Amino acid sequence: MHIPDGLLPSSVYISGYAITGGVTWYSLRQIRKKSNPQAEIPQASLLTAAFFVSSLIHIPIPPTSIHFVLNGLMGIVLGYYAFPAILIGLFFQAVMFGHGGIAALGMNAAMMGIPALLASSVFRFSNPLERKQKTWTGICAFIAGSGAIALSASIFTLVTLATISDSIDAQAERTITLLALGGYGIQALLEGIFTVMVVSFLVRVKPELLDC
Amino acid sequence: MKIQPLSFLLFCTVLGISPKVWAHGANISYQQTQAIEIQAQYDGGTPMDNAQVTVYAPDDPANPWLKGMTDAEGKFTFSPDPTVTGNWDVKVRQAGHGDLVSIPIAGNANGDGGGGENNTVQIATAPTSMNSGYTPLQKAVMAAVGVWGCVGTALFFARRKSSPTPAVHSESRVEG
């Protein structure tokens, strides 16, 4: 789920960079308020690596193939660190593997990073302090994990539908884009389950990682 | 036998409006051209079948020169106009995914360079596949390098800050 270079109008790419610039500034400002901003860089780096590699593992679901995005999990574990981590991961994906692109980097970062921040808020807001209730923690993790990817897919679909050019068969493109939502639904389900598994593991072995 | 004028006119009219009916022969002409075949795949290697293809000529990049769709294998073939040299842009799109590739086509300057009879078309055929073109091994090495960069960053920031050894302690041992 990466918006590629060259397919959308320039205004979309520029808007993406504007949004990403603002959110990056806000995230870094929130990180700077912490007593030790460098303390959480190790886990941010490791999750950036996971995010970077996850785009290479493809699951074919017609008409396209999907891969884990992990933005919900990154939001849960990293909090405000998630947005710059996703931005860096997307940059390396674009440079090394051509996923997305440099022009589309801002749009892709906004599309995946903002839902990560929302997932972080949802997880913390709906799961206050008491994490001994494993069922409730799992439900919150599932909502945050699957909701983040569902929101990203919705943004992707809206941008795609809003920017269909006259040079192609708009109806066919619209139909297949809406059909692809089914695949994204499966992806959201899988990511939600994966997020629950990771969060349950972290609650058991290192719950302080979820308190950033 | 006397031919009636009306019958003669009717006979001529039938011949004139439906030549295919009366023509039992066939004629096939051919012309040798150079074609470009593209193959569009998703990153995972799945062909982009029935994806929409738009070809833009170098002299008019705003308006499509050709539209079409890829086949079941994600392939699409077209013959560019040999008189129009430059970068031919081919855009493939499906469900918001896709790619744009520029195919350089240069006229061979045997003639006037602008479409003379002796001109041939040179096509840079190296990047015929619209994916990154890396082998799985290359991708694995690149991924490992990227991961190692992140792990190295994590280790750097996770290192324990070494506490300075008190020099007084060693000096006191010497003295003692």
Low-confidence stretches of chain A: none
Mean pLDDT of chain A: 87
Main sheet summary of chain B: 5 strands, antiparallel
The Cα radius of gyration of chain A reads 17 Å
Question: How far do the termini of chain A sit from each other?
Answer: 27 Å
Radius of gyration of chain B: 34 Å
In CATH, the topology of one domain in chain B is named Immunoglobulin-like
Oligomer: heterodimer
Give the strand content of chain A: under 5%
CATH architecture of chain A: Orthogonal Bundle
Would you report the number of β strands of chain A?
2
Q: Look up the CATH topology of chain A.
A: Arp2/3 complex 21 kDa subunit ARPC3
- Approximate shape of chain A: globular
Mean pLDDT score of chain B? 72
* Uncertain stretches of 5 or more adjacent residues of chain B: 109-130, 170-176
Name the helix and strand elements of chain A from N-terminus to C-terminus, one letter apiece.
HHEEHHHHH
Note the total helix count of chain B.
4
Question: Can you describe what's shown?
Answer:
The complex is a heterodimer of chains A (212) and B (176). Chain A is globular. Chain A has helices at 10-32, 41-54, 71-78, 82-97, 105-125, 134-162, 170-205, and strands spanning 58-61, 64-67. In chain A, a hairpin with a 2-residue loop joins β1 (58-61) and β2. Chain A has a two-stranded antiparallel sheet with strand order 1-2. In chain A, 69% of the residues lie in helices and 4% in strands. Chain A is mostly helical and 212 residues long. Chain A has a single domain (10-211), classed as Arp2/3 complex 21 kDa subunit ARPC3 (Orthogonal Bundle). Chain B is an alpha+beta fold and 176 residues long. Chain B has a domain at 33-131: Immunoglobulin-like (Sandwich). Chain B contains 4 helices and 7 strands. In chain B, a hairpin with a 2-residue loop joins β5 and β6. The model of chain B is unreliable at 109-130 and 170-176 (pLDDT under 50). Chains A and B meet through α2, β2, α4, α6 and α7 of A and β5, β6 and α3 of B.
